[in-house]
Amino acid sequence: MVTVNRAIKTGNGIHAIRRPQLSGNQPLKPKYSPRRSIILLLVFSCSLILLVVQNQMQLSAFLNRPVSKVRIENQWQQISDDEVQTLLSGFMGNGFFDFDVDRVREELELHPWVLQASVKRIWPDTLSLKLTEQVAIAQWGDAQLLNQYGETFQPPNIAGLQTLPKLSGPENYQREVMEQYQKLSQILFPSGLRLSGLSLSKRGSWELMLNDEMQVVAGRRNVSEKTQRFAEFYRSLPVSESSRFRSIDLRYGNGIAVKSVEANLTGVAIR
């Protein structure tokens, strides 16, 4: 409730006027007008739209700047910067919102050493690039490589990867050969034997190459058990004797046929 102004005459002739007050000692508030607020909002919106329309080209050029920078998120071993630059050259310079990141990712993943590519735009003009390379675990045949998932890929030149183990087998058996290689490698390692080659024939027979010079025929069945038996036999011999082994046949039920480098005679060690 608002009090009314009243003039009060004092004894010395001075007039005092009381100020209007709200009940509860609260200051006066202006009356809220929804209509006025709507009008102000409309005026502001129209002004903003007019400003955008008048400067549409400048605003578009500012927001959609050409992509001109590449930020490398990780390091590569097999992929060169020049190769990546060549792959990106046809896309750089496109506007930020026009830049086709999906197409760039597809082009990068066509590279034989690229397992996965991550491509992102960073406003206003930068491309973020992360490449996951293939990890070559073994050679497959004469020209292909196997990754850690048992998948083949074919770089143009594998001359510098000749130290990788050489695996081979029928088509679509890459994963099975890779799994067998990992299993047999663990069996042979404690005996100081390195599985440098493994092949699976079309008839399902396994052959091993140990330390790049020792050929082992394991047959089709119980390959792990036979390999374990040979590893224990090999470890029990002195190095001067076992180092002469060149050909081993594990297809016997209770023995091992061994051919040494000095003689072509075959001996059978019975267990």
TrEMBL record:
<comment type="subunit">
    <text>Part of a complex composed of FtsB, FtsL and FtsQ.</text>
</comment>
<feature type="transmembrane region" description="Helical">
    <location>
        <begin position="38"/>
        <end position="57"/>
    </location>
</feature>
<dbReference type="Pfam" id="PF03799">
    <property type="entry name" value="FtsQ_DivIB_C"/>
</dbReference>
<dbReference type="Pfam" id="PF08478">
    <property type="entry name" value="POTRA_1"/>
</dbReference>
<dbReference type="InterPro" id="IPR013685">
    <property type="entry name" value="POTRA_FtsQ_type"/>
</dbReference>
<dbReference type="InterPro" id="IPR034746">
    <property type="entry name" value="POTRA"/>
</dbReference>
<dbReference type="GO" id="GO:0043093">
    <property type="term" value="P:FtsZ-dependent cytokinesis"/>
</dbReference>
<protein>
    <recommendedName>
        <fullName>Cell division protein FtsQ</fullName>
    </recommendedName>
</protein>
<dbReference type="GO" id="GO:0032153">
    <property type="term" value="C:cell division site"/>
</dbReference>
<dbReference type="GO" id="GO:0005886">
    <property type="term" value="C:plasma membrane"/>
</dbReference>
<comment type="function">
    <text>Essential cell division protein. May link together the upstream cell division proteins, which are predominantly cytoplasmic, with the downstream cell division proteins, which are predominantly periplasmic. May control correct divisome assembly.</text>
</comment>
<keyword id="KW-1133">Transmembrane helix</keyword>
<dbReference type="InterPro" id="IPR026579">
    <property type="entry name" value="FtsQ"/>
</dbReference>
<keyword id="KW-1003">Cell membrane</keyword>
<dbReference type="GO" id="GO:0090529">
    <property type="term" value="P:cell septum assembly"/>
</dbReference>
<comment type="similarity">
    <text>Belongs to the FtsQ/DivIB family. FtsQ subfamily.</text>
</comment>
<keyword id="KW-0132">Cell division</keyword>
<keyword id="KW-0472">Membrane</keyword>
<dbReference type="InterPro" id="IPR045335">
    <property type="entry name" value="FtsQ_C_sf"/>
</dbReference>
<keyword id="KW-0997">Cell inner membrane</keyword>
<keyword id="KW-0131">Cell cycle</keyword>
<feature type="domain" description="POTRA">
    <location>
        <begin position="65"/>
        <end position="134"/>
    </location>
</feature>
<dbReference type="InterPro" id="IPR005548">
    <property type="entry name" value="Cell_div_FtsQ/DivIB_C"/>
</dbReference>
<keyword id="KW-0812">Transmembrane</keyword>
